[in-house]
Amino acid sequence: LTLNPFFMKFFDVCVCRYKVIDEQQKLMSKLLLKKVGWPFYIRDNKTEEFMLAMMLFVSEQHGQAYEFFQLHDYTEAISDSLPECVKNLADGTSHSIWTPLISSFKVPYRHSSYFFELSKLFFQGSNIEYAFKCIKKSIEYSMKNVEIKEPQSFKQTQLELYLDLLFHFNMFAEALDVLRFSHDVLSEHIREKYFRTMLESTRQSAPFLATVLRSCHSHSDSIYLPVTDYRIIDKILVSHVSENDWKSLKKLYSFRIVNNHERAAAELLYEYLKSNCDDVETKRKCYLIIVNVLSTFDNMRDRWLLYGNDVLTSADLQKELEAL
């Protein structure tokens, strides 16, 4: 195929210069694949099988495209034998969808970059399943080839795409692990963006918070969330609490309790019953919860909470309860 100038001309126009979804170009690509690509490509010729993968992708046959894209180690095998029209895609002036992928052949971290760019292609092509498979391969290469230095910007965008896909598939526990263990790559601002997006999502906030609470509870004898992540989530949950909003208050209370911040949880309830609660029975329940929480402290001297500038002991709270 690569020796046929007529084929290469059509390949350049229909595949290499592919930028956005264009029905006419898509039809031409499918015809090129059906009439020439499939019948005449040379099996085990790595260059032609890579080109076949490109044709399959633009023809929206993503499953077969994925199989051919990972059939060989193309970044090592064909880096210097790509056809001119494909090689030229990496010169920085092309606006083809293939430019980032072909450019990945030339960077030191080519394997992780190659699958990262493939993941982006499948993501843009709305095939999330193969995007997820590719980003996992990219990260596997990054973890395996630790001696190869990757730019901070690449590591960040790689993890951000991975997180986007994990959240798409509701894989909250795995996403939490990425957020917890990647402080050297993901800034506090980025982590807050993801926590806020999840906690404010109409569809995902409840299951995401449930996963957070369950994970924190299962690690109650150790620290599950790093301090900065705890503060980020706590701040977001605090921002959700409004006057007489018992549901949001329970979420924040539960989060503080499972993270062993019992005094902060008790102070939250006390502030609620003093400021926003008029029902006597609800106040009584809050007092009982607060007293029970403080009673978990072994030392009597530790059984206190702050309210404004006042320090209230469990004995003070018991008197207030009896006075209701």
In short:
The protein has about 325 residues and is an all-alpha fold. The protein has helices spanning about 5-15, 25-40, 45-60, 60-70, 75, 85, 100-105, 110-125, 130-145, 150-170, 170-180, 190-200, 205-220, 225-240, 245-260, 260-275, 280-295, 315-320; strands at about 305, 310-315.
Structure commentary:
- The chain has 324 residues and is mostly helical.
- Helices cover 66% and strands 2% of the residues.
- The protein is built from 18 helices and 2 strands.
- It has helices at residues 5-16, 23-40, 46-58, 62-69, 74-77, 84-87, 99-103, 110-124, 128-144, 152-168, 172-181, 188-199, 205-218, 227-240, 246-258, 262-275, 280-294, 314-322; strands spanning 304-307, 310-313.
- Strands 1-2 form a two-stranded antiparallel ribbon.
- Strand 1 and strand 2 (310-313) form a beta hairpin.
- The longest helix has 18 residues, at 23-40.
Mean pLDDT across the residues is: 90
User: What profile does the largest beta sheet have?
Assistant: 2 strands, antiparallel
Helical element count?
18
- How much of the sequence is in beta strands? under 5%
Amino- and carboxy-terminal Cα gap: 89 Å
Question: Which properties best describe this structure?
Answer:
324 residues; 18 helices
Blueprint (SSEs and pairs):
Elements: H1 5-16, H2 23-40, H3 46-58, H4 62-69, H5 74-77, H6 84-87, H7 99-103, H8 110-124, H9 128-144, H10 152-168, H11 172-181, H12 188-199, H13 205-218, H14 227-240, H15 246-258, H16 262-275, H17 280-294, E1 304-307, E2 310-313, H18 314-322
Antiparallel strand pairs: 1-2
Helix pairs in contact: 1-2, 2-3, 3-4, 8-9, 9-10, 10-11, 12-14, 13-15, 14-15, 15-16, 16-17, 17-18
